Amino acid sequence: MEFPPASSHRAPTTVRRNPPRRAKQTPLAAAPDPSSLSSAVDGITPFPLDEILQPDPPQIPPPVPKSPEPQSADSSENLKNKNKSSCLAVNDSHSVTLSAQPSLLDLKRTKSEVYDGFSFVFPQDSLQQEVYDKVMNPLVLDFMGGKNALLVAMGPTGSGKTHTMFGCPRDPGMLPLALRQIFSHATGSGDPYSSSSYYLSMFEIYSERGKGERILDLSPNGIDLSLQQSTIKGHQEVMISNLAEAESLVTCGMLKRATAATNSNYQSSRSQCIINIRAARKSVDDEQHFPPNNAVLTIADLAGAERERKTGNQGARLLESNFINNTSMVFGLCLRSLLEHQKNPKKPLHKHFKNSLLTRYLKYYLEGKKHMTLILNLFRGREDYADTSFLLRQASPYMKIK
Ligand SMILES: Nc1ncnc2c1ncn2[C@@H]1O[C@H](COP(=O)(O)OP(=O)(O)OP(=O)(O)O)[C@@H](O)[C@H]1O
After folding, report:
1. What is the enclosing helix (H) or strand (E) of 165?
2. Which top-level group of life is the source organism from (predicted)?
3. Pocket test for ligand 1, best of 163, 164, 174 (most atoms within 8 A of CB)
4. In the predicted structure, residue 177 carries a pLDDT above the cut 80
């Protein structure tokens, strides 16, 4: 979902639905397949996030190759059964229908709501590259053209936000694909981009045992940071000269990021993670057509809202949940207020952003002063109806009851 600056007229939105949730995973599982760790894409340095994100990965069925389904006699029957077990259906590339389970008293009536106006809706078998081409590529081009850009992933815990943003070597996500694009331009001879220097910084916002929010630099030797107005103070910016350096830094940062096993996700993010890539373009000579600037590409992987009943969280995990849920709620309120304001400028923008560090940091985006794109990761199982409905209401530009 795109939230253009107030001055722009770009159409809103993006939804990415996730694959059906797998059965509860166990942290005790087989060792990673070494062949998967060494797999590289076309001579590009492998991005070892598999090792980081899945130190003890559960047995995961191999991804189903994307191929047209054979038209068998029972395929329409299968489809019907599938639809019965899911609450969300893709209508077209811009809208979805959410259906509540018919009530026991009135089995004939199924309440349906159509959520419309998304920039793109991706079916569950979409490839990362497809999402990248539609969602991330325009942001990277903006960034390389000197504009700031922000991509945020939001959705419930375990819905695939980290997977979408970071991916794995066989299936790289938005960040590694963006880095590849940036450095493939940067090394092009005679290319204006080759006169840019790139800097990477990475930090997380988290709350340890409910003791208030903290910001931690995820760079090597990173320390506690502070936020003044909407600016982070004291963080390290590391110059990145090539893809390998950038990937290595992100890998180190991800190793430091707070994660923990819950019943919903055996490696659940416990913090809001933000990565900034800054381009400092040098003005080479008077002929230079591109003025010096400091465009920043920001990627935010939010910790997913979670229900105590599902995660089984207790103690420290539960206190973290409260922080995560509070931040998700504040972020959602900011989004809703921005959407309402963009639809009808007479509606005031509420100052919800003041209520969490994350939203204070993203204030200018949440006030519509800078361009933001949102990826909404959703579950579609019947049992996920309440969460999915809540998120769609927060993030959808238009909704009508059928
Ligand atoms: N599209 C996908 N293809 C393959 N695996 C996926 C996909 N989406 C998610 N997964 C897997 O599902 C699990 C949960 O995903 P992930 O950790 O990305 O969720 P999350 O939304 O970031 O959760 P949390 O908010 O708890 O951090 C991971 O093991 C991930 O590899």
Report:
1. helix 161-166
2. Eukaryota
3. 163
4. yes
Give the ipTM.
0.97
Q: Where are the domains of the chain?
A: 42-55+135-370
pTM of the model: 0.77
Å from CA of 377 to ligand 1 middle: 10
- Which whole number is the average pLDDT over 144-170? 92
- Annotated ligand binding at 158? The verdict is yes
- pLDDT of res. 2: 55
**CA pair distance 114, 7, nearest whole angstrom:** 28
| Ligand 1 center from residue 265 Cα (angstroms) | 8
- Containing 338, the helix (H) or strand (E) segment is helix 315-343
Cβ of residue 156 lying under 6 Å from some atom of ligand 1:
no
Q: Averaged over 101-114, what is the pLDDT? A: 69
Is the CB–ligand 1 distance for residue 265 below 6 Å? yes
Distance from C-alpha of 35 to C-alpha of 6, rounded to nearest angstrom: 48
**Residue 37, token pair as written in the block:** 């760790």
Which is nearest to 60 in space by CA: 82, 18, 32, 40?
Answer: 32
Count CB atoms within 10 A of the CB of residue 350. 14
* Pocket probe mutation, ligand 1, options 257, 265, 266, 377, max atoms within 8 Å of Cβ: 265
Q: Which CATH number fits domain 42-55+135-370: 3.40.630.10, 3.40.850.10, 3.30.360.10, 3.30.70.240?
A: 3.40.850.10
**Where residue 315 falls among pLDDT bands split at 50, 70, 90?**
low
